[in-house]
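Why does residue order matter? Because the sequence determines the fold. Keep that principle in mind as you read this record.
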Amino acid sequence: MNAKKILAGGFIGGIALLIVNFVISAFIMIVAPYDALTLGGMRPAEDPLVLFFFAYPFVLSFAAAIIFDLVKDALHGPPGSKGAVFGAALFLIYTVPSVFITFTSMDYPAGFYFENLLFGAVGFPLIGAIYALIWEQL
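Structure:
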């Protein structure tokens, strides 16, 4: 494992996912608004633990960077293609089952599901491309 590339990918990918999350959330609030803090099971906004929610893109990105380091040799083509394939795999393995289980078990507003689908569809190929470029350039 290449710690330098994993750290760079995890940090840069985390920033990218955080930005994607804010942009997609803003878009969803225009198209299909909902208040996440009113959904069942959510912690109150005053709970200090809620602040860790903003670490989620970084936790996800570092974990994905480790996986990318493990599977990079199985990906073929230019960096953009490798990133797209890796992002599609993450989308299929993570986003689709997550949205499926949430949709079938919880009665949340449509915007919640659309936001999660868009986050995976946009964010995962993006971090895949970031990882592919980092692994090629560093």
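The helical segments are 3-31, 56-71, 79-105, 110-137.
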